[in-house]
Amino acid sequence: MSKLNAGAFEFIPGKTFAPPSQSQNQNQSLPPPIERPEPTEAPRPAPTISLSIGGSKSSSAQPAPSTTPAQPASHPKSTILPAKTQSKAKSDSPAPPTGPSKTFSLEKSKTDTNAIAKEVQAAADKVVLDDLYGKVKEHLNIVFIGHVDAGKSTLGGNLLFITGVVDKRTMEKYEKEAKEAGRESWYLSWALDSTPQERIKGKTVEVGRAYFETDARRYTILDAPGHKTFVPSMISGAAQADIAILVISARKGEFETGFERGGQTREHIMLVKTAGVSKVVIAINKMDDPTVLWDKARFDEIKEKLTPFVKAAGFNPKTDIIFIPLSAFVGLNLKDRVPKAKCPWWDGPSFLEHLDHMPMVDRKINAPLMMPVSEKYKDMGTIIVGKIESGHIRKDDKLLLMPNRDQVEIAAIYTELEEEVPSAICGDNVRIRLRGVDDEDISPGFVLTSPARPIHAVRQFEAQLAILEHKSIICAGYSAVMHIHTLSEEITLVALLHYFDKATGHKSRKPPQYAKKGQKIVALIETTAVVCVERFTDHAQLGRFTLRDEGRTIAIGKITKLIEGADGITDGVANIS
């Protein structure tokens, strides 16, 4: 019989199998009993082993068994709870904490916007924010757009005058200086066009900034250039705006010049939509001109010509657009409604009346901080200027300046009126003095961001592109300039990945060889330097862009996928032998 298996039956070939008797089997298989001493202690609990699988945090470790001798088993002191009490005690005890899943994904866990929003929401709820920042007036950023000489700067200058920001004495000084320069009708625009070059030529070059306040709201004016040479400056201004004011000249000939092919009216409407502006107020200016004289037929003609194009740009004519007749130079229908004697057919609101009662844009106060830098300069330290796109900041906050990952501290926060304030929230245009970084290490397009959830800094991404205008076909290797938030950067289309079928709207499986005007494609884009961007679905304002080439807007697009560590992957593949 085998010694390896003491309980096995013996088998001999040629003989019939006969199991051994039960008594014999018991005598052979059962070892003699072991005598054990009587127990004097309660048995110790069995050790527990916890396994952590899939990256989740292990539950809290069990305490080591006590070395103190337990009470004798014959005298237990444990009390048995009723069934109801036991179940209640179990339900009251907190569940063991489970950590975040570390399952690998290309987008990484930090792109889970819902989780981030909940985390930030818990840190700063509405009550806390009200305690921190108080009940301040709502703040709107408005950008003036339109063809050159439509009256954008004049409208802005008169708004500053009638709201009391620029006093009468200063305006009289501007009027006198303008008269001496032979530019008498331009004196109102001098409140915004501050440089000698802009005043002499009567053309805005940079994005002028101004601030005014009504009883209901606070406003920042961004006066964008109208000339086609300065469209990049206009894009930078539109990227910081909540509402666009499209200024149209009603004067015979001027509207037609601005609206025909090559005029800036069409391009500006499309660019503000791409920049994220959701509402447009179309101010029909110069209604007091001798060629118009508040004529309703002229107002209706302009409205009929503009509406289809505005609709094609993506605005809803019923909810996103309003047409208001006015005279910026005389100031009619700006603050007070135009008198019936002048314009008997207009029953709508005045310009400021409409702005004060517009629905407020959605603010992401509880989201992670994102503030693209539009300007920087040195003044008793490093100063950056920009609009807070999401989140909120306070003095002495420790933040990150991306893409260089410079750790900075907020030394001071200033409003548009150069007043120091302890805090600011999204939507505010602010100037911030920083500690820990030199102004030479900052460029427009950098983003001040939260260290807990910094903005992505990448060199490659996938994007959907709508080709608007190009004289020839676009192939892989095509280069252009990308405008996104306050950043301008040269890019290359590394590869065309898909095109969208116009009939079905579905993506193609095969990559297209080229793209042409009117097509919608998906492309892999590479930038010359690292850029701070987000996916469009996560943060629309930091995920939509415009491509320009040779003074024309070639395409508009939105980022669908970020490719991080592209340089490292490329180098690794190149080194494989």
Automatic annotation (TrEMBL):
GO cellular component: translation release factor complex
Keywords in alphabetical order: Cytoplasm, GTP-binding, Nucleotide-binding, Phosphoprotein, Protein biosynthesis, Repeat
Domain Tr-type G: 137-369
Residue ranges with Low complexity bias: 19-29, 47-74
Spans annotated as Disordered: 1-108
Record-level Gene Ontology MF annotations: GTP binding; GTPase activity; translation release factor activity
Sequence intervals crossing the membrane: none
GO BP: nuclear-transcribed mRNA catabolic process, deadenylation-dependent decay
The UniProt record lists the keyword Cytoplasm: yes
Record localization: Cytoplasm
Family: Belongs to the TRAFAC class translation factor GTPase superfamily. Classic translation factor GTPase family. EF-Tu/EF-1A subfamily.
Primary site of residence: cytoplasm
Name assigned to this protein: Eukaryotic peptide chain release factor GTP-binding subunit
